[in-house]
Design brief:
With 266 residues, the chain is of the alpha/beta class. Helices cover 48% and strands 14% of the residues. Strands 5-4-3-2-1-9-8-7-6 form a nine-stranded parallel beta sheet. The model has no long low-confidence stretch (mean pLDDT 94).
């Protein structure tokens, strides 16, 4: 049983949804990331999504695009990200899931990427733009051989065949995008979300995490009623953006995560 599977089992026993915060690695620099990962853990993260900055983040909204640019401008490289994870691993209890596009994986080589990710303490990978059909040849075997969970996305527009395909290649959990479009929307949660998530959970055996556009404790509470996990990303990325390199940023982030997780622990 993987560390990610353990998290969902524990949350089921506690009769609550898991909380998954997202930040971009290297934003504003890797030393700050090394301080923010433990802060997320202390604040109540059950699982941490760590974004690998990429020059063409087509699924990301303005906040995450700016974060990727800042990280790349600061010289963030994949090797540096692995080094930071390795350094923080002993003080971060929550599993770490890399959130990435396929290009950085392809550039490093799938086998080498999987080996180095696992060695650093990564627990799983969510690859946004790799279709499940194309993942079977080298991606899935490499990651599975190194004990890494493989998480894939589904959306409100996903067809029944696509749901089946994603369910077959996913492990750990399935990430359900709450709305069409990019990350970071400030709009209210879609009225159809509860119905869609309930329908999806009847079709798949894995836990379902819901993300995109969730930013407040009230929205966390609403999504937690129907999903196995709640993901908050852009709202935390904007907090990091506003905090810059302030010494108070880790504490500010920890406090905000504690506020967001409060509805899950009542």
């Amino acid at each position: 049983m993987s560390a990610i599977t353990d998290v969902f089992a524990r949350c089921r026993r506690e009769k609550r949804a898991a909380f998954i915060p997202y930040i971009t690695a290297g934003d504003p620099n890797l030393e700050t990331t090394a301080a923010l990962l433990p802060a997320l853990d202390r604040g109540g993260a059950d699982l941490i999504e760590l974004g690998i900055p990429f020059s063409d983040p087509i699924a990301d909204g303005p906040a995450n695009q700016r974060a990727a640019t800042r990280a790349l401008d600061a010289g963030t490289k994949l090797s540096g990200i692995f080094e930071v994870i390795s350094r923080c691993r002993a003080e971060v209890e929550a599993p770490i899931l890399l959130f990435t596009y396929f290009n950085p994986i392809h550039a490093r080589g799938v086998e080498r990427f999987a080996e180095q990710a696992a060695a650093s303490g990564v627990d799983g990978v969510l690859c946004l733009d790799l279709p499940p059909e194309e993942a079977r040849e080298s991606y899935l075997p490499a990651l599975r051989n190194h004990g890494l969970d493989t998480v894939f996305l589904l959306a409100p527009t996903s067809t029944k065949p696509r749901i089946k395909a994603v369910a077959e290649v996913s492990s750990g959990f399935i990430y359900y995008v709450s709305r069409t479009g990019v990350t970071g929307s400030h709009e209210p949660l879609p009225k159809e979300l509860a119905k869609e998530v309930k329908a999806l959970r009847r079709r798949v055996k894995l836990p379902v995490a819901v993300g995109f556009g969730i930013s407040s404790p009230e929205q966390v509470a609403a999504v937690a009623k129907v999903a196995d996990a709640v993901v908050v990303g852009s709202a935390l990325v904007r907090l990091v953006e506003d905090g810059g390199m302030s010494e108070d940023l880790p504490q500010t982030l920890e406090d905000r995560v504690r506020e967001l997780t409060a509805p899950l622990r009542r």
